[in-house]
Amino acid sequence: MTPVPLPEAKAELFKTLGHPARIRILELLQEGARPVHELLDEIGIEASNLSQQLGVLRRAGLVRSSRDGATVLYTLATPDVADLLLHARRILASLWAEQEGLLVSLRAESGTG
Fold first, then answer.
1. pTM for the predicted model, two decimal places
2. Would you say domain 1-77 falls under CATH 1.10.10.10?
3. What is the DSSP string of 15-84?
């Protein structure tokens, strides 16, 4: 098997993160292991869609599953996933703050307040 170039591997990672349900799943799993029924209650998507999204995250190596009796629990594969989500929030907050600052400046220049 030939190694995947790093830029391609990164692109695949970000592609995996490119779905709102997957982001929400990862956010919920930051709090600890969760069974599917809890994820369903929190996310509000169909069970088949949740199963598909969990499969994508599992194949990408971002989440792991384990059994506790008849219950399947999902967890983040590494704390680095939580760190990545934190950094994404910081980046977005910074971008939104810059946009808000620009909007305030534009309003001040136009005299609209």
1. 0.83
2. yes
3. HHT-SHHHHHHHHHHTTS-EEHHHHHHHH---HHHHHHHHHHHHHTTSEEEEEETTEEEEEES-HHHHHH
